[in-house]
Amino acid sequence: MAGRGRLASGEFVGEVEGLTGEISRMRNQPFKVGGGLERKGQAAMGQDQDDSIYAPYTTVSKKLQRQQFVSEITVSAATAEAHDRNRDLRIEVVQAESPEHVLEVARSADDAGWDALYLWDHVHRDPAEVTELADVWTMLAAVATTTERIRLGPMVTPLSRRRLSVLIRQTVTLDHLSGGRLTMGIGLGVDRAGELTRFGEVVDARTRADILDESVDLLIEAWAGETVTHRGEHRLIDGIAFRPRPIQRPGIPIWCAARGSALRPVRRAARFQGLFLIEADAEQLGRAIEEVASARGSLDGFDVAVVAPAPDDPQSHGTSVLEVPGVTWAVHMYPPDVAFDRALAAAKAGPRAAS
Predict the structure, then answer these.
(1) CA-CA distance, 18 to 12, in Å (whole number)?
(2) Mean pLDDT in residue range 166-177
(3) Of 19, 56, 118, 329, which sits most exposed with the smallest number of CB within 10 A?
(4) Which of 122-126, 300-304, 307-311 has the lowest mean pLDDT?
(5) What is the C-alpha separation between 260 and 255, in angstroms, rounded?
(6) 3-state secondary structure of 201
């Protein structure tokens, strides 16, 4: 996926293995196609869950203006205007025929005004859905060197199945290759189609959550450039200074994935720069934002990314998640069964066409 936006206001990260995802973010809007809102108050969120999404696909998004949070979910007059000005679009293309096609989408999104391009981090999916996957980090490196403006990153990387020493080097290298455009999406991962069990990875959700928490703290410490010495339950780093540091200071923005009404991942996200919430309705999203605001004291510098409902989705006729105060990134998703050409066309059309 691809994306752009002020680091101070948070960045959006997403990814698809073997697929491309682009996101143009609203001033503070989640990835996938959506509109931005202005924030008028504060709110919060929070539990753990698996972060499962189809592997190969493309997403494009545009940023939205932030709407202040109020005591209850409401839509202000500024919301519609914000949607017109800022939108995130995310296109999912499961069967990207080649890495070159992913790069074609990335270049098109960069030229057309999208804000971000993120890729899912999967190593295996149900063959009935996806048969060919590309390595996300190799693809992101290619995207970084073929684009100039859009933000990029994995959405999301399950830290429990990544070797931390390698991941630290990959993230810093990618941040340098992209000129400081990386957003790091993290989550628990999912064992759909045996993506964990068939490789001997940790399956227990609570253990994966513990590994994630321990790992993300070490990522941040390593990005600071100081010597890291850590002997934990799951991770060991014995006196290593990771250099160079990322271009972005104090570090690469981190977005945490959450699903539905789960609050633990929401509370985790509140520690960092953003939340990517999936499979949640407007009420659940509002509670999540309240949880974040409560934990942080405000929503300043925090991004909330959500998936925009499709026009034929019943939810699109009610209170849209894009209208919930506090949402900063909107993402339109094209599922795996959508033709690649359609995703490419959306990337070329730009965020205005997705309004």
Answers:
(1) 19
(2) 98
(3) 56
(4) 307-311
(5) 16
(6) coil
SS3 category, 223: helix
Location of structure tokens 């004291």: 297
What type of residue sits at position 277? Answer: L
Q: Could you write out the DSSP letters of every residue in 47-98?
A: --------SS----EEE-PPBPP-SS----HHHHHHHHH-EE-----TT---
Model confidence at 98, in pLDDT bands (50, 70, 90)?
confident
- Collapsed DSSP state (helix, strand, coil) of residue 269: helix
Domain 2-348 adopts which CATH fold? Answer: TIM Barrel (3.20.20)
DSSP, res 316:
G
Largest CA distance in the chain: 56
Residue with tokens 């060991």: 236
Tokens 């804000």 label which residue? Answer: 115
Residue 266 pLDDT level (bands cut at 50, 70, 90): very high
∠ CA 202-205-210, nearest 5°, is 80
C-alpha atoms less than 13 angstroms from C-alpha of 108 in its C-beta half-sphere: 25
Q: Can you give the residue ranges of every domain in the chain?
A: 2-348
- Cβ distance 187 to 274 under 8 Å? no
d(CA 131, CA 140): 20
Average pLDDT over the chain reads 75
Give Cβ neighbours of residue 21 (< 8 Å, ≥ 6 apart).
1, 2, 14, 15, 31, 57, 58, 59, 60, 90, 91, 92, 117, 118, 119, 120, 155
Helix or strand (DSSP H, E) at 257: strand 254-259
| Side-chain-side CA neighbours of residue 309 (13 Å) | 17
DSSP string, 135-200: -HHHHHHHHHHH-SS-EEEES-EEGGGS-HHHHHHHHHHHHHHTTS-B-EEEE----GGGTTGGGT
Residues 6+ apart with CB under 8 A from 210: 233, 234
Task: Give the C-alpha distances (Å, rounded to integers) separating 228 from 173, 190, 326.
Answer: 18, 29, 36
